[in-house]
Amino acid sequence: MAYGTWTPVLQAVRDVLDDGHGSLRTIATDRFSDALPEAVAEEEKQRRGLGNPAPFRIRVTRIAPNAASAPINSSVILRDFELEVTVSRTLSLPEILNADDMQTLQALCLEDQSAVSQALGTPPNLSQTALGTDTNIAGGALRYLDSRNVVTTSAPDEARRLETTHRFTGVLRVSP
Amino acid sequence: MPGAGPTTLIAQRMRVYVEPAGSYAEDHTGTLGDFVDVPFVEGSAQLTTTQETQNPSHVLQNMLDYQEEVLGKKVWSLTFDLPFYPSGSAVGDGVTASSNSAIHRLLKAVMGGAHLGTGTTVATGGWASSAAGDVAAAAGLSAGGLFGWADSTGFVHTREIESVTSNTVTLKLGLPAAPASGDTVYTGATYYFTQDPDTSLQFIVEGQETEDRFVILGGQGTVTPTLSLDGTIQTLQFQLTGTKWLTANNAAGSGTIDGSALGKATFSNYRPITSQSGRFLVQTVGTATYSGSEVDIQALNVSSGMTKEMITSPNGVEGVVRFRMVRASGTPPAEGSFQTYYTARTNWTARDSKDDKAVYYQNGVSAGGIVAVSLPTVQFTDVQRDGDTIASETVTVKARLDGDTSETSATDLGRSPARFHLG
Known about the structure:
Chain A has 176 residues and is α+β, with helices and mostly antiparallel strands. Chain A has helices at residues 7-19, 42-48, 93-97, 99-121; strands at 32-33, 54-65, 77-91, 143-151, 160-174. Chain B is built from 4 helices and 25 strands.
């Protein structure tokens, strides 16, 4: 019995976002950096989120049977999954106090959405990792769902972060 | 152990074998290696096995009595959904499309014809145009078959072939650019209608219970694609019917298929794709201009008007000797519709002018990961303004024989009013 292999899935997404991997609609290598683990202190997150590359993290948040999957006793079954890419950009004092600076930052966050959704949603960018390992993602791409952003709370007159979470869904081929 | 139920439909298995012409409904389960597993959608297989009973109606002496009915002929029906999956591996230079998959066997049996192409490369010097040129070896390419070429970004564009003369290939519709010398020419398997498909299908259908094992023989039917465009997995719905069926303990292969635990189904060349990336192309038949042929669509439907009719005879199996493909008068062999954003009266004009149009849909972008549906010569029979939130129009089309292939001798492949391609 073999289990679903998720390492190439996660690695390929990181490769596309962080290293410019892919053949179509690739992201510049200095736009994002995989540097937003949850355990990092808030101040460090704020420091990392100043300018480019903006830190991100990825999480697979849901796995479910795919409606078109063959029965469980088959050599290949299909699983739907949802994946989140969270990008953090720091709201420094100018953005907090000045509407024009806030507009610039918001526009940059919305541009992030375009970059992330195009790169992850265009096949065959996610067919393989940068090192050539097959991801088994059906169609070699994810499907964009939506994006939401929140401003993290902090003490008054202190920097905060604009965290934008981009959600995707995909289908994984699993060979049990 | 048997009878330990209830069991669910989560675990099932279905294997298929194509009965050759002249061997209608002959039990082949003694050679299980000739069967292949079918990756049907979990829970979608609906099997009914019927044996008619007939009342002899002889006179009785007590009004409370009833005649014992006589067992009559058998009939079965099976419907299931199958992901519309591609060849699974690139059919490039020197590679011939595989016949070792369930989808190949099912489509060929139901439609009648299959062409397994062999890839090649663009000949030295490249092509002067985007629609015609020489390849290194055209023997594995045919009019009506699939041609694929990757552009500079790696996106594989597929087209149907208009003609093959020596090593010169002419496409029905041009590519975005002229292929260069040495570029790989991909192809795949093409399934087309013949006028008289004469094979039939035999299945072993198994559930979790060790005695939930049935062998159904002598089947034929139809296939209808569900072409979602929302990123889900597209499917083909097969609706089949047949005559003879057996419980597995009465089959030739009973020693292997009956009474044992449900085995693992193994699929060959099974790499399904999702449906959010591809191309939808509409062009006037005979016009190879690529520019302007891409049409953005929100919905696409295709269906066939061809059906199968049992040919009865006392010499047959359960009174049936074979199936025959038929088409009701006034029903097109294939038809469909597509919904696009409203921009101009172009489609109305095409309808009014009775223009011959070619409709071609490709799902997927990578060699080995493409499926395509073609209605090579259609008439726009209806155009309706519609849409819920986006101003749209739905165009209804009806297909005829392909009017845009050129062959020395016309073939069913070259003339088929509809084709499926697995690239």
